[in-house]
Structures are given as structure tokens and as C-alpha cells.
Design goal:
Blueprint (H helix, E strand, L loop, with lengths): L1 H4 L4 E7 L8 H21 L3 E7 L11 E6 L2 E6 L17 H15 L5 H11 L6 H12 L6 E4 L3 H16 L1 H17 L12 E8 L2 E8 L4 E3 L4 E3 H10 L4 E3 L3 H9 L2 E6 L1 H7 L3 H6 L7 E3 L2 E5 L1 H9 L4 H5 L3 H12 L2 H28 L4 H29 L1 H14 L13 H7 L3 H6 L9 E5 L4
Parallel strand pairs: 1-2, 1-11, 2-5, 11-12, 13-14
Antiparallel strand pairs: 3-4, 6-7, 6-10, 7-8, 8-9
Helix pairs in contact: 6-8, 6-9, 14-17, 15-16
Keywords: Ligase
Organism: Mangrovibacillus cuniculi
Protein name: Putative cysteine ligase BshC
Length: 467
């Protein structure tokens, strides 16, 4: 914070929702990206560069943050906290009970298994959680502890002190709401004309502001006929909304369009660290920045990292599979090819040949019955279906036998896919850091921060030493 007070200081900023146990690993990868780029730019420019992580505490989609995935019974399963309600309450107001915390911890440890680091991990997680913590409070404690030595500044977008600082710019957003919407729509039209697909769904009556009352967050629209800002139950003139901001600024919050603009108002931004989705939709916001008198900061794609432990590395070697193929989703193709090679191809060929013979013989029988014994047609069809079912049953039994005989080999393929390309996506979008903390301990974080990362669009592979 002291560094940020210096008149020549700038920030590298990025943000994400506050998932339980910090959510998918791409959140940590974004934080690492922010810290690394800030460090590099401070050394290059010779001015204070502060790494800032913007917690999206004002978001209300609890189903995006209330879960993580763990490995159980050789499958990836969702471990989640049931939402208190399905209302549109801000995540920063959503409380995690002690019972919910204990259940998450118990299920997590059960899935991870016991290692030499498990007790330390459990002890830390217990100390990090305070009864009736909100999602953002618990998230902040974890991140502040893990990255305490790197000067990272956390900002909760829903914090009341931050909201008070935003009041002057809320006035500008209210005054310019229609112009901002039109700017985004025009930019989308320009991009679509150049062959790009639009990312943001925005209507002509959008104000890009949320009203937050009674712990319900609702998007405001602009009613041209009444020249007013409207929710489902309330209508505000422009002046009334401006007065509301002055009296109760926490009742207004930003959406995906205005959040970047507010961020630029609050912070002297040198660069914005973005995930793939953000890179896409920020391209639609350039003229919106201009509309409120700003220049859009440089958008730097975050680092992409896949973590590879010794077990994964050994499986890749044994299966003669380049890691690039595993990460890009080719494990299933390799597995099916291997599985096909293990099957009794001669038996399958013989059954196919028998089906062809049945086709010919049944065709002749059917022709005779149709002309001479029409009452037997239903019986003949059932008989045919029965024989085919028996042949298919034989094939299925043969396949199941191969699966049993080679279960260990097939599971190695399956686990590689779960670890490196789960649910047909990157590891960092599904797995949580606790898997690796349990396996390698907390020393992996400073080791990770010492890596010579560069922002060249590469996908980094982190090869873990030890078991």
C-alpha cells in the first residue's frame, strides 16, 4: 500500500471470483502472472509497480464459486457447499458456516489421501478459516498467506470503503450509460464485420449497472419512454439514482462492461492480466473506455501452466505419449487405439461374418413368409432380433473381459486424461492447488515464483520432483 501511495507508482492488475480454497488453479496462475509481470516491469521501468488482484466480490453467481473438483473412486467429482439460498446475493455477503467448512475439509482430505504434508495442510486450512467467514474473506486469507512475500495487494470490489471511492465515477457512469452501451454495440458491429464473434450479450437498454437491495442484485435497464433507470420493482430518474449513490453507494455495483472502467478510474493501470475469455470481451470495450475519457490499458494474457508429477511423467513415458498430446486432448484417442488393439479382432470378425450370413438367410426366410405365411411375420422378426441380441451380448462380454484383463493399463490412460485434460479442457480449469500442496507441501509456492516465466503465449509445464 505504501508503494502505491508514491506519485509515480503504477499497477499490474487482474481479477477473479473468490472460489472455495481459491478455486481452479487458473486463479493462482493469474495471481502469479500479476506478480511476475509487475516485478519485471518495475525492474525495466525503474518505477514502483504494484501487483493488484481484484476480487470480484460483487458478483452474485454463487454456483461459480461454491465448489471444486476432487478425485474420488477414479473419477472427478464435485465437492461443494450448498448455497444458503438461490438469491442474487453478492459473494462478499455469502457466509460459509463452520459445519460447511468442516464437511469440505473432511471430504477434501478423504479424496487427497494421507501424505507427509497432510497434517500441515489441514492445520493451515483450519487456522485460515474463521467461523462465519464469507467467501471473499476466506479467499483473501489464503492468498495473503501464500503470497505474503510478494507485495500483492488485494481489493474486494464489494468493500464499502472501495465503494465510497467509486462515487464520483458512478455519477459519470450514470450520465454516460446510454453512450457506453452504444459504444460497445458499435465496437461489436465493427469486430463482427471483420469476422470476429461477439462475446458480450448486451441489449440496447442496458445501463451496465446493478442495483443491490435486500441482498438481491438486479441489473438496471434504461426506460427511454420514462427517461428512467428501472429494476423489476423500482424506477429511478437520473437525479434520483445519483442521489442514491451519494447516500448509499453500496447499493450500486458494476457489471462486466463497467467493472473495467471503474478499475481504470481507481488504479493507475500499467497492464491488465487477462484470461482467454477476458481477452475476447475486452476487445469489445475499447470505445467504451474512450467514452468516459480513458485509454484502454494493455491487455496481457495470463500465464498458462500444467503441473506434471512423477506419476504422470512415468505414465507418459511408459505409454510413449508426448506430453503435448496429453495436454491437447489426445489421450482418449490413444486409449481407444490401444483398447482396440487389445480386443480379439478375429472373434469380432467372425461375429460380423455371422451377422452377414444371418442377413442373407433371414432375407430369404422373410420373403417366403411374406408370400406364404403372413401370420408368422411377427414371430420371424422377434426371432431375428433375438439372434442379433445374442451376438451383441457375446461382443459385449468379450469387450468387458478385455477391460478387466487390462484394467491397470486402461486406468493409466484414464488418469492421465483426468489430470492433464479433464472434462476436455486444461488442468488449470478444473484442479485445485490443494492436490499439489498435499503432495509436495507449501514450499512449491516460492519455488513456483522463482521460475523464469515470460509472457510469450507459451503453455508452461511444471515438472514436479519427488513423489
Amino acid at each position: 500500500m505504501e508503494k502505491l501511495k508514491k506519485p509515480d507508482s503504477v499497477v499490474v492488475v487482474g481479477g477473479q471470483q473468490a472460489g472455495i480454497l481459491t478455486g481452479p488453479m487458473y486463479t493462482l496462475h493469474k495471481i502469479i502472472s500479476i506478480i511476475v509481470l509487475a516485478r519485471q516491469q518495475e525492474e525495466k521501468l525503474g518505477i514502483p509497480v504494484v501487483p493488484v488482484f481484484w476480487i470480484a466480490g460483487e458478483d452474485h453467481d454463487i454456483l461459480e464459486v461454491n465448489h471444486l473438483f476432487v478425485e474420488k473412486d477414479k473419477k472427478l467429482k464435485k465437492l461443494q457447499i450448498a448455497p444458503n439460498t438461490l438469491s442474487k446475493k453478492m459473494v462478499s455477503d455469502e457466509i460459509i458456516s463452520q459445519d460447511d467448512f468442516e464437511k469440505v475439509l473432511r471430504d477434501l482430505v478423504e479424496s487427497l489421501g494421507e501424505t507427509q504434508h497432510t497434517k500441515e495442510l489441514v492445520k493451515f486450512l483450519r487456522s485460515s478459516f474463521k467461523e462465519n467467514n464469507t467467501y471473499t474473506e476466506w479467499f483473501s486469507t489464503l492468498i495473503n498467506t501464500w503470497f505474503a512475500d510478494y507485495g500483492l495487494l488485494l481489493i474486494d470490489a464489494a468493500d464499502s470503503s472501495i465503494r465510497a471511492l467509486e462515487v464520483p465515477f458512478f455519477h459519470r457512469l450514470i450520465d454516460k450509460s446510454s453512450e457506453i452501451t452504444n459504444a460497445v454495440l458499435d465496437q461489436q458491429e465493427t469486430l463482427c464485420a471483420s469476422g470476429y464473434q461477439k462475446t458480450l450479450e448486451i441489449k440496447e437498454d442496458a445501463t451496465n449497472l446493478f442495483l443491490y437491495e435486500d441482498q438481491e442484485r438486479e441489473l438496471l435497464s434504461f426506460d427511454k419512454d420514462k427517461a428512467a433507470f428501472a429494476s423489476s420493482s423500482k424506477i429511478y430518474t437520473k437525479e434520483e439514482l445519483r442521489q442514491l449513490v451519494e447516500i448509499a453507494p453500496s447499493k450500486l455495483s458494476n457489471n462486466v462492461v463497467t467493472r473495467p472502467l471503474m478499475q481504470e478510474f481507481l488504479l493507475p493501470t500499467l497492464a491488465f492480466i487477462a484470461g482467454p475469455g477476458e481477452v475476447s470481451y475486452w476487445g469489445e470495450l475499447q470505445t467504451a473506455f474512450h467514452e468516459v475519457g480513458f485509454t484502454m490499458p494493455p491487455v496481457v494474457p495470463r500465464l498458462h501452466i500444467s503441473w506434471v508429477d512423477r506419476r504422470m511423467e512415468q505414465s507418459l513415458r511408459d505409454l510413449e505419449m508426448p506430453i503435448e498430446q496429453a495436454i491437447s486432448g489426445e489421450v482418449s484417442v490413444k486409449r481407444e487405439k490401444a483398447f482396440k488393439a487389445l480386443q480379439d479382432q478375429e472373434l469380432l470378425h467372425q461375429i460380423d461374418h455371422m451377422k452377414e450370413m444371418f442377413d442373407k438367410e433371414f432375407a430369404a426366410i422373410e420373403e417366403r413368409i411374406q408370400s406364404k405365411h403372413t401370420s408368422l411375420v411377427p414371430i420371424m422378426k422377434k426371432n431375428k432380433e433375438y439372434h442379433y441380441r445374442q451376438l451383441d451380448f457375446l461382443i459385449n462380454k468379450s469387450v468387458k473381459q478385455v477391460e478387466r484383463d487390462h484394467a491397470e493399463l486402461l486406468e493409466r490412460y484414464n488418469r492421465l486424461e483426468r489430470m492433464l485434460h479433464p472434462f476436455e479442457g486444461y488442468q488449470e480449469r478444473i484442479w485445485n492447488i490443494t492436490y499439489f500442496l498435499n503432495k509436495y507441501g507449501f514450499s512449491i509456492i516460492p519455488k513456483l515464483m522463482d521460475q523464469p516465466f515470460e509472457f510469450k503465449g507459451d503453455h508452461y509445464l511444471l515438472l514436479m520432483s519427488g513423489e
